[in-house]
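>> received
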Amino acid sequence: MIKARPLPGGAVVVEATPEERAALAVRFGLGAVESLRAEMRLEQKPRAIRVTGRLKAAIMQPCAISTEPFPVAIDEPVDLRFVEDNARPAAEGDEIELEADDCDEIEYSGDMFDLGEAVAQTLGLAIDPYAEGPNAEAVRAAAGIVKEGEQDGPLAAMLAGLKRD
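>> returned
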């Protein structure tokens, strides 16, 4: 948790402990989160706190084909805005037009906001749910599964004959 006023000066580092990494692995269905570190700068804006920086993580992710875990390095930019939950009052039914900068807003209440949870959510969004490990092709071949565009058989041969050069 970070105190909203006054903001800490300089870089803020969020680094997950072994217990937090284990909890994140369970939360995101990973084999492990071996490291997670985010280094960010906080800047007070008129109606928000802007957080920019970089998240780096090493995870063991299950292959989408074989489910075998394989190592993945994540290096993602962080660009968030924390907005007090009462800073944008809107009556029910009112339409709100969002600008491009408004899409990564996180509301908070009180005098503190949870930067660690924002880093965890950024990690969750950075994970490719369809990532394939190094043995995906072998598992595909053993199961008789072919990738789109690699079909073989009489229909594929006939369609290939129809192609014009």
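>> The two ends are 63 Å apart (CA to CA).
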